[in-house]
Amino acid sequence: MTLTFTPLHPLFVAEASAVSLRDTTDERTLAEIRAGMDRYAILVFRNQAFTDEEESAFAQRFDGELHTKPGAAAISKSRLAAYGISDISNVDADGELMEQADRKRLYSLANRLWHADASFQAPAGRYSLLHARVLPPSGGDTQFADLRAAYDALDNEMKAQLEGLTCHHSIAYSRQTLGFEFSAEELDKLKGAYHPLVRTLPRAGRKTLYIASHAARIMEMSLPEGRLLLWELMQHAVQPQFVYTHKWQDGDLVIWDNRCTMHRATAFKDVQHRRELRRVTTLDLEERPAA
Ligand code: OGA
Ligand code: MN
Predict the structure, then answer these.
(1) CA 172 to ligand 2 centroid distance, Å
(2) Domains of the chain, earliest start first
(3) Residues, Cβ < 5 Å to ion ligand 2
(4) Whether residue 120 has pLDDT greater than 90
(5) Per-residue model confidence as pLDDT tens digits over 184-229
(6) At residue 267, does pLDDT exceed 70?
């Protein structure tokens, strides 16, 4: 099957032609999707009818092993059992809408900060696949920023300054930014991970920033200087020309490359309306060579 990709933004993001991914098993089509990801960093597939198991199985065919400890595992157990599936919803363990003060709700509000999935783990997240199951009548868009284009737009002096720097990413840090509090026992499980601030994507052959609200310090700099630099880079990277806003339709599957994009959820009337999506995130292990 030959897929076509129609750009949805001048820099990144494309919509794929009609395909049923739960039935997609042939290596040729999988390789076309990987090549599309190398070029666009984000792909939108309409009208996917995944069960949790099918979404998990597709992600494994597409890229391999999955993250099994999503961020929220630190504070609560998931209601979902399928391998690697994260519950991206405003619904509690009993399937009821979460109340305003629900701790898990307050914890997930940090999805509204710009981030890359599992950057606080090693291996970090490579691809995230997010599938829309139930959508609210309005709001609840997801925004994405292109960190390759943001890197390219830096001046040479800044590019030289960033070369070789290492960043500590911590989910405790990003949650604490919003005032969320952890117990000592929870914090003990959230040590974070270290990653280069600039990296080259081997197959795509492009350089990118690797930043997120989880980025807590630059190891080679003093804490305040590193944070100032991180804030400056974050502000640079989310300027309107680097940002795409995804307005969800029922059945959309969006795949994004966490190595070179950030994303954030936007507000909606979440105490009134359901919004249920399911995510899987693959491990950022060594890339397979180009087909
Ligand atoms: C995620 C995430 C944003 C959203 O699933 O990783 O950040 O809009 N989701 O739900
Ligand atoms: Mn996320």
Answers:
(1) 15
(2) 5-283 (3.60.130.10)
(3) 117
(4) yes
(5) 988 888 899 999 999 999 999 999 999 999 999 999 999 999 999 9
(6) yes
The minimum-distance atom of ligand 1 relative to the CA of 279 is 5
Q: Which protein residue has the closest C-alpha to ligand 1 atom 3?
A: 265
pLDDT per position as a tens digit, 135-173: 999 999 999 999 999 999 999 999 999 999 999 999 999
Print the SS3 string covering the chain. Answer: CCCCEEECCCCCCEEECCCCHHHCCCHHHHHHHHHHHHHHCEEEECCCCCCHHHHHHHHHHHHCCECCCCHHHHCCCCCCCCCCCEEEECECCCCCECCCCCHHHHHHHHHHCCECCCCCCCCCEEEEEEEEEECCCCCCCEEEEEHHHHHHCCCHHHHHHHCCCEEEECHHHHHHHCCCCCCHHHHHCCCCEEEECEEEECCCCEEEECCCCCEEEECCCCHHHHHHHHHHHHHHHCCHHHEEEECCCCCCEEEEECCCEEEEECCCCCCCCCCEEEEEEEECCCCCCCC
